[in-house]
Amino acid sequence: MKVEDKSIITWVKDYSKGELSDDAKKELKAFLEEGKENRDLFNRYRRLYTNGRALGFANRLDDEKAWKEISRTIKKPKVRKLHLRLPYAAAVIIVAFISTFVLMQEVDEVDFSKDYNFAELVQQGSKEAILTLADGSKVKLEDDVEQIIADHENLKIEKDAANHIKYQAQSGEETKLQYNTIEVPRGGEYSLTLYDGTKIWLNADTKLRYPVKFAEGKRDVYLDGEALFEVAHDKKSPFTVQSHDAKVKVLGTKFNISAYDDQEFIATTLVEGSVEINNLGNTAVLKPGYQSIIIRGENKITVSEVDTYMYTSWVDGIYEFENVELEYIISQLGRAYDVEFFFLEEQYKHIRFTGAFEKENSFEFALDMIERIADVDFAIKGRHILIGKQ
What is the rounded CA–CA span in Å between residue 241 and residue 216? Predict the structure, then answer.
């Protein structure tokens, strides 16, 4: 039974309101009985709708009341100062100042009422990435084709048509510690399976450095960006992810780390198992359903209970936000679609927002959602999308 997303969303809307027709009930029942995958899909859409994150589907649901209701729940912005080490903060401020100065020289009057073609700026979603091998050579990972990346006496590296990289042992011989680095560009995404069987999903604008084969007794990898880890269990060899000041240590678990170089925080969200967070001498242990936040340069770890799917749904092509600042959402959009944004005024960065959208939707769809909820407007200037108001 092949069903389009819009049919599932209609079922969700009518089901949530108690307005399912008899025919729709039969269709939905048949769809759900086909298997767990269908039930999970229906429940995911239902949760988005009922939790107030249905905004991303609003144009398909045609539910203006939902927009107005959610808008009233958005809290006033809380402006938080950056607390970073001086060299890092200075670098960010200098770059931001130069970019702002140059762009402001070009911006005289912005016509937000114009019908812009935002799609022309989008170089959406290629899964292309670059793999740097231990000898320094670089391999362009082609999209949706099989590749033999390396085939040595004791190791084979290959990529399947679904863009998953796999490391396979050819013999039991020991090899010296060698590192590979995978770099995923803005607008891209990738996944790989390490030598030990650990699975990793990499978000846009992410770099991961890891050993081709782990040394005995430890498994250390280095992350700059965002990744979801499903770690193969090995009691004798703890798995450690290092990102800036933070170190996440596990034995076997599933967790997400967001540690982009241009964001002030490092967030670790635990889905399954147990992880130990280390930061500048402080330690915290996470339980499933909890998230730690580290402000870079500060020796403090904040732990809170969260809806983990909100922080891992990007793997499924869904971006969820609940009461977060527009600046963070815009940075996520910029990475996902490889687009540069620019706020005309500081106040717009701190508007808080609740919503959800799928990456498969058009870029204009995401901007329209933000305009309607956050009460801002978008315009194009050169290669930038400006954020302001008419």
Answer: 16
Largest Cα–Cα separation, the chain? 67
C-alpha span between 203 and 205 (Å, rounded): 7
Asked if 144 and 225 sit in the same domain, the reply is yes
Tokens standing for 196? 């030990």
Please answer whether residues 157 and 149 qualify as being in contact, where contact means their C-beta atoms are separated by less than 8 angstroms.
yes
Report the pLDDT value the prediction gives residue 17, as an integer from 0 to 100. Answer: 62
Domain containing 195: what range?
Answer: 129-311
Between CA 356 and CA 362, with CA 359 as vertex, the angle to 5 degrees is 100
Residue type, 85: R
Name the residue with tokens 């809290």.
75
pLDDT band with cut points at 50, 70 and 90 for residue 288: very high
Cβ–Cβ under 8 Å, residues 139 and 130: yes
* Residues paired with residue 82 on neighbouring β-strands, in sequence order: none
Residue 78 included in any domain = no
Question: Does residue 67 fall inside a structural domain?
Answer: yes
Rounded to an integer, what is the distance from CA 64 to the centroid of its chain? 28
Q: What is the pLDDT of residues 321-368, one digit of tens each?
A: 877 889 988 998 888 888 889 998 889 888 887 777 777 777 888 888
| Secondary structure class of 270 (helix, strand, coil) | strand
DSSP 73-116: HPPPP--------HHHHHHHHHHHHHHHHHHHHH-S---TTS--
Quick check: is 80 in a domain? no
First to last CA, the chain: 47
Cβ 302 vs Cβ 286: under 8 Å? no
Q: Beta strands 190-193 and 164-169: pairing type?
A: parallel
47-92 residue pLDDT tens: 555 544 444 443 333 444 443 443 443 333 333 333 333 333 343 3
Asked if residue 236 has pLDDT above 70, the reply is: yes
Give the pLDDT score at 58.
Answer: 39
Residues 242 and 148 in one domain: yes
> What is 15-29 written as a DSSP string?
HHHT---HHHHHHHH
Of 377, 384, 387, the closest CA to residue 114 belongs to 377
